[in-house]
Design brief:
476 residues, alpha+beta, 5 domains, 5 helices
Length: 476
Amino acid sequence: MKKIIFLLFFSVLFFWGYGQQSSSSWSTTGNSNITNANFFGSIGNVPLIFRTNNVERMRLLGDNPYLGIGITTPKAPLHLHTNITTLPSGISNIKLLQLTTTLTGSGESNGLIMYYSDVSGFTFKQNDFSVNFNLEGYGGGLSIAPDGNIGMGTTRPRQKLHIVDGNILISKTSAKAAPGGSPNGSIFFGATINNNFPNGKWGIEYLDGEDNCYGLNFWRPWNPGGGGYSNYTLFLANSDKVGIGTNDPQAKLDVNGSLKALSANITGALSANALNASSAMITGNLSVKEGFYNLSLGDASGQNLSYGTSYIGFNATRNNGIWSLAGDRSNNGGSVIWGAVDGSILFASIPTTGGINKTLTDTQIKENIKLWLNPNGKLKAKEVEVTLANWPDFVFEDSYDLLSLSEIEQYIKQNHRLPNIPSAKEVEENGVNLGDMQGKLLQKVEELTLYIIEQEKQMKELEKRLSEIENERGGE
């Protein structure tokens, strides 16, 4: 009987101990004798559910490793969901995620927080004022400083976007990225209206055949609310030509409008193809240079040319009353044409003095004036030389048909002028050619000389005849 009682007691202890070690329950105060074979969960295709206050807070699906917090049907390995339709009154956003450390603190606003707002959507915010918020890939990333500046390749950005040792590549994805249309392939500077038309200062887009345009287009809104914009404010064509106000530049710089510059230095020929503009205003000198010499246009006022307006300089450029002339190792001459406020035009020819560059003053330029045309049409010059062909030496040829004085008299009575001389009305309407008129006047002088010679012959013949008559009377 004692043996039977002992065996029964031993059996109870054995099965109680075995049951304790292989129990499927987990103690909330700790568990011992745990092995790799132990796990917390289910064997069947059922989810693992966590509840508080008898409300489901978290669920790990049974058929895939998707964990949902706040949602019973997670769509990702970690799916956080907040059940809210509208934000409470007076609250602009709701916190969804917060990451903190002992260094950042674990307060309400410490660390990195993700917010949701019904206005701006999802927002990550770094609340530590002394550190950056960084996003990094294998080869680098971006860093957002506490002041809002974004750095790429630098952790100390000095502007809203600061890129170090890198480029920006924008690939066009839309069929057309014009102002007011799809923003794909474009850069907008400023806010947008209805997520569409930029309400900023500039927009940049690359055109790949739209409106037969190929190039980079800069445009600027001038009436965003009304949908107006200034297109092709600057256009960099694929042909390496630049257009301002045009998408079809015909020159290296094609300006559809006015052009203003403090100075312009053009090396080579100045032509409509080299500079295409509706109008151009240059404050300073415009120089067109070819080789050693240049053609200059500039200001001729002030100092000793005080009544001057502007000038054209041939190898002569004026700057504050000092003229520069270039030398080509043999000659350094030039010339200047300038206008005065009274309407005069003056021409100065500067002789060469050697082959090196030289400078002259306004006084020296004025000392070389060779021609002066005043506003009344009076031309003053030291000497005028006219080269003509058909000089009237033909008057003295034997074949020349010299009119008789009686014929001249008759012509004058009818026409009130000499033959082959323009009338007063013709001169008033058409003017005269100085060289041609000099020839005509010389022709009349030569004809008059022939008349005088003929008159002298007749007078000598008359004197001879009178002498013979007197001799005949004396012999009687």
